[in-house]
């Protein structure tokens, strides 16, 4: 019985966390910026690293992905991609109780 409960707990926890390479369907926040993807990412990355030092940036098609890792829930992910004369910024966050208000604030400040 303990093994069954332990297995269910592990399965539940594993389902809460997404690998950094996977982004859920709809973003929690999506806006257009007049800044190029490189310029916008250069604004957000240091602000996120102040809150979560292990935040990283990777290149993706037409832009960048900034990932703030989480031990308990899904990572917070920001995709910044080329859009017309600027960027489309898409923020993906975990469940409501785990969202970081300061990361979302940084996303808005850099627009």
Helix and strand topology:
Layout: H1 2-16, E1 29-33, H2 37-51, E2 56-60, E3 63-68, E4 76-83, E5 86-92, H3 101-109
Antiparallel strand pairs: 1-5, 2-3, 3-4, 4-5
Helix pairs in contact: 2-3
Explained architecture:
With about 110 residues, the chain is of the alpha+beta class. The protein has a single domain (about 1-110), classed as 2-Layer Sandwich (TATA-Binding Protein). It has helices at about 1-15, 35-50, 100-110, and strands at about 30-35, 55-60, 65-70, 75-85, 85-90. Strand 3 (about 65-70) and strand 4 (about 75-85) form a beta hairpin. Helix 2 (about 35-50) packs antiparallel against helix 3. Residues about 1-20 have low confidence and may be disordered.
Q: Can you summarize this structure?
A:
By secondary structure, this protein is of the alpha+beta class. The protein is built from three helices and five strands.
Keywords:
single chain; 111 residues; TATA-Binding Protein; 5-stranded antiparallel β-sheet; 3 helices; 5 strands; disordered N terminus
Strand line-up across the major sheet: 1-5-4-3-2
**What is the string of SSEs from the N terminus onward?**
HEHEEEEH
Percent of residues in helices comes to 25-40%
- How would you classify the helix and strand content by structural class? alpha+beta
Average pLDDT over all residues:
83
State the low-pLDDT regions, or none: 2-22
CATH-assigned fold name? TATA-Binding Protein
Shape: globular
DSSP strand content: 25-35%
Number of helices: 3
Number of domains: 1
Terminal-residue CA separation: 52 Å
CATH architecture classification name: 2-Layer Sandwich
Strands, total number: 5
Major beta sheet summary: 5 strands, antiparallel
In the CATH hierarchy, what is the class? Alpha Beta
């Amino acid at each position: 019985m303990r093994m069954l409960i332990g297995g269910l707990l592990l399965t539940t926890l594993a389902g809460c966390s997404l690998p950094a390479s996977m982004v859920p369907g709809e973003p929690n926040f999506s806006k257009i910026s007049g800044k190029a993807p490189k310029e916008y990412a250069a604004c957000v990355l240091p602000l996120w690293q102040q809150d979560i030092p292990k935040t990283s940036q990777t290149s993706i098609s037409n832009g960048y992905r900034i990932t703030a890792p989480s031990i308990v829930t899904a990572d917070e992910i920001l995709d910044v991609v080329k859009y017309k004369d600027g960027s489309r910024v898409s923020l993906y966050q975990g469940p409501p109780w785990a969202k970081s208000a300061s990361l979302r604030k940084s996303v808005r400040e850099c627009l």
